[in-house]
Amino acid sequence: MEKDTLTIGGQNFEIIRKKIKQIDLKFYPENPRIYSLVFNEDESPDQYDIETKLINTEHVKQLSQSIKANGGLIDSILIRSGDNVVIEGNCRLAAYRLLAKKDAIKWGEIKCKILPHDIDDNSIFKLLGQYHIIGRKDWAPFEQAGYLWRRKQKYGIDESNMGTEMGIAISRIKRLISIYQFMSEKKDLNSQNWSYYEEYFKSATLKKIRKTLPELDDAIVRKIKSGEFTKSNTDIRNLSKIANLSGKDGKQLTKKFIKGEQTLDELLAIAKYKGADNSLLKSLNSFRVLIHGTEIKKTLQNMTIPQLNAAEYDLKKIEKQTKKLLKQLEKEKQINKKGNTNICEGKEKVGEKEIVSISADLIPQFSNFYNGSYNLVNLIYNDNKKGLSFDEIGKSFLGKNKSHAALKKYGENHAKFAELLKFVKINSESPRKVYITDLGIFFIKSSETEQKNILLEQLQKMALIKDLRNQNLSNFDLLNYLKQYLADSTAKRRYSNIKQIIKLLADNSILNFKKIYNKL
Prior knowledge:
Number of helices: 26
Shape: elongated
Strand content: 5-15%
Number of domains: 3
Number of strands: 10
Radius of gyration: 34 Å
Distance between the termini: 103 Å
Mean pLDDT: 86
Strand order of the largest sheet: 1-2-5-3-4
Helix content: 55-70%
């Protein structure tokens, strides 16, 4: 038996080193790792519950093999005399219990450092913080938060004192405690869900909208508990994108999320369509918030004459450029209403026209226009993100009475048409599968009128349609035009497809497509 001294929070405690029968020791329920693993809101765990849970963890199983290979412990466990509670080393005790199931004699005793029986709980918590937050830092954030929360709740230690004691930023301590407090109030102390709540509290956008939509909290908890959220960072960040839409859109879509009227993916697709991922809109929104804030007025009041002159110069330049941009914006809106857009891969402008690169794969081929647009997108959407092969798409539309080659070709042609419309994406790996895009989801969830407008818009964005709009109609021949890019037989097969698209655009008075259709 050896004696030593342990300093905790400036106070010295005498400890004794010796081996003790592991069967006589008790787990410490208040240890944050145990607490997070076995604590139940309704009742405290007993010793059997704690041991069972611990020995079934992968950590303890690996630890037992390490101890066995070493022939015993390297670091003694720390216990309190009198009740023999293990203050530090509960996983090591569990590893010994696991080893003892096969060899009770060899693993019957364990090396211990024994603290006095009258050591107070606050000193014990200080010690655990020194070991796991300041020293080894091996506690997960949830365990750290539980430790800090209980120190505040049970022992009345405030954040500033804990920060000074452990050398941790007070803001971090407050954040961890507030998240744990929220989880406790919502009766969800599942450590696996910590990352969802941490991301939820991290978002400045969601923090702001929670003030006007407090019911968002319960909706978040409900979806986390039910397992509806599968990727903590991605799911919460996507919700933040939705809520951050400018104007009333963000709040309206968040309300739909709360009420469960649409899924997160559906709402995200709508948000992206409205500009959630548009960097220009984000910059403009940030600038608008900046110039409307009270801080800018205070800053102006404290600026020198040269600084005010510089600010005036920049603001006048911004005003001048803003007027130009507003004119261009209005022009683009009018152009889009008429059906003329400037979005295409590999384009360059020449005056009011665009030079567009055309290749065979940019010329659609389909047997049924609606199967390649409305019906296919709906089919992929209902597939629940698994993705469909060309064969499966062919079978869905034609049944099983066609040959494998025919089914595959039918599915491929209609999937490629839908991909040109940006409603689906085809992966490049084998086997090739078709997945719905955010625009596809938005298209499916839109009204019939909105679907028609979106379809017309996407048709006009196709490179082929853009190039057709630039053609000289005096001697235009669609078949000869197609033969520039396709074999004669293929051009003849696709002629009817392109004619159908041109007719649809002409029937909806899209620019000069009525003139083009009349030339066919």
